[in-house]
Specification:
homodimer; alpha+beta; 3-stranded antiparallel beta sheet; DNA-binding
DNA sequence: GTGTATAGGTAGCTCGGCTACATGTAGCAG
DNA sequence: CTGCTACATGTAGCCGAGCTACCTATACAC
């Protein structure tokens, strides 16, 4: 997949993967790769800043867990994040309808 | 629709709207707006440079028409552009499958 | 003659995701 | 006990596609 087609949809992916469960950054990257059959392999330099941005925006909350001596910052959706996710899903729906409609249209 | 969700899909739109017909830049913008029920209203500063880029890439060919005193640069798909369009459509398919799959997935 | 729609074009900015780097732990092979 | 790999988090700075804000020019209505 071309690199920057992701532009503008990253937040939706991160919120969606945290829907209903807590994960730390590294696990988020793995979960996205798993769910997309390896199509998504986001670099840490993409994911970590995005997570912090979403936390600052109030969509995520984080806490430090220490599991077997390893520090992990686990993230979970806030209520506001749930709403944002719903909005992102709606926007995705609209986006695919619009672009898909143009791409499929006959001359 | 958020501004930069378009990122990476503009070429596909332009190629698709020229599939099977010749249009000039201004008409392309109108055609896209029409096909998307007004959701797409691309500024000329987006479309014109993109058209020239696609022409340099060999996907489009252009010629000057003079209609009722007006100069119009009309574009049409080249054979190479046809192939590019097919590729873009396939990529769009993959893209929506991947992202859509993640967004719809249950925890 | 003034305003509006049509028509094409460019310089420069913006900002999101990527590249490349820095840091550190756990566990295994040898 | 050394080296290597996987795990885990993070930042500085680049890059480029699309956008903003302009400029130019013609046809036509009023």
């Amino acid at each position: 997949m071309k690199a920057d087609t992701l532009r503008g949809h990253l937040d939706a992916l991160l919120l969606a993967v945290l829907d209903g469960r807590k994960l730390h950054g590294y696990a988020i990257i793995e979960a996205l790769s798993l769910r997309s059959d390896g199509a998504l392999d986001l670099p840490t330099g993409t994911v970590y800043p995005a997570l912090r941005r979403l936390e600052r925006a109030g969509y995520l909350a984080s806490e430090w867990d220490v599991v077997s001596g390893r520090k992990r910052r686990t993230y979970r959706l806030t209520r506001s994040g749930q709403q944002a996710l719903a909005a992102e899903r709606a926007e995705w729906q609209e986006f695919t309808t619009v672009i898909g409609g143009v791409l499929r249209a006959e001359a």
